[in-house]
Amino acid sequence: MAGPSTAQRGERQKLESGPPRPPRNGRLPRPRTLIILLLALVLAGAGSVWVLYGSHWLRVEKVSATGMRVLTDRQVREAAEVPVGSPLISVDTDAIEARLREKLPRIATVDVVRSWPHGIGLKVTERTPVLIVEKGGKFVEVDAEGVRFATVSDAPKGIPTLELTVPRSAGLRRFGTDRLVREAVRVAGDIPADVARETRTVKVRSYDSISLELSGGRTVAWGSDEKGRAKARTLTALMKAAPGARHFDVSAPTAPASSGS
């Protein structure tokens, strides 16, 4: 009787030796190794927390402010109330921004940034006046959004004065003073640059009755703030066509007029 074949002997050896063992390099880490790794991670995390919050290496030591034109460095830093000596990571930058905008309305935007390892930077953008309103011998500055943000003793040079001569009527109740101020601001923004330099006063009598007083006693009837760019182009052309005129009307830009030459 023939003995088992070579293939049969191979199958018998596999069965007797049990399931295949995993390769040596694929073994799972021993429990002791896992414990060591976990301890290392915990210590590293605790060390990082201590460096950020507990050590003296990353604390606020310096506050700098940039971008101001009217405000001083001291005014901005005092209003910011940055907690010098505190961990840099814990400084509430949103709270600093809110304090600055509340205490210093002249600030339009401010970016509060951490400057590692010891600094806080305040990048300020101030509001720019486009009109001023005279009040009690002083002047209230109004920006391009119609925000009245500061009161100054001396009128800024080159900024037109806003005069609201609006009768107490249903129109005023309908549009409101703030709405009319915004209309005047938009008109001021549309005035051609060469005319803006000569503009002394922006007068508002109603929503659709806004006029300009220029140097030399010249006047411009602008109308409402609608079609501002078209009116600006028309006014520029009209002044070139009638350089000696003293009164210009661009309230209807397709039918302009000039007089008083």
DSSP helical segment count: 7
CATH topology of the largest domain: Rossmann fold
Mean of all residue-level pLDDT scores = 85
| Amount of helix | 25-40%
- Portion of residues in beta strands equals 25-35%
Question: Which word captures the global form?
Answer: elongated
Per DSSP E runs of 2 or more residues, the count of β-strands stands at 12
Low-confidence stretches: none
H/E series: HHEHHEEEEEEHHEEEHEE
Q: Can you tell me the CATH architecture of the largest domain?
A: 3-Layer(aba) Sandwich
Strand count, sense and barrel status of the largest sheet are: 6 strands, mixed
Question: What is the CATH C-level name of the largest domain?
Answer: Alpha Beta
Structure explained in plain terms:
The chain has helices at 6-17, 31-54, 73-80, 93-103, 170-190, 193-196, 228-241; strands spanning 62-66, 107-115, 119-126, 129-135, 138-143, 148-152, 161-164, 199-206, 209-214, 219-223, 247-249, 257-259. It is an alpha/beta fold and 261 residues long. The protein has 2 domains: 62-126, Ubiquitin-like (UB roll), CATH 3.10.20.310; 129-259, 3-Layer(aba) Sandwich (Rossmann fold), CATH 3.40.50.10960. Strands 7-8-9-10-11-12 form a 6-stranded mixed sheet, with helices on one face. The N and C termini lie far apart (137 Å).
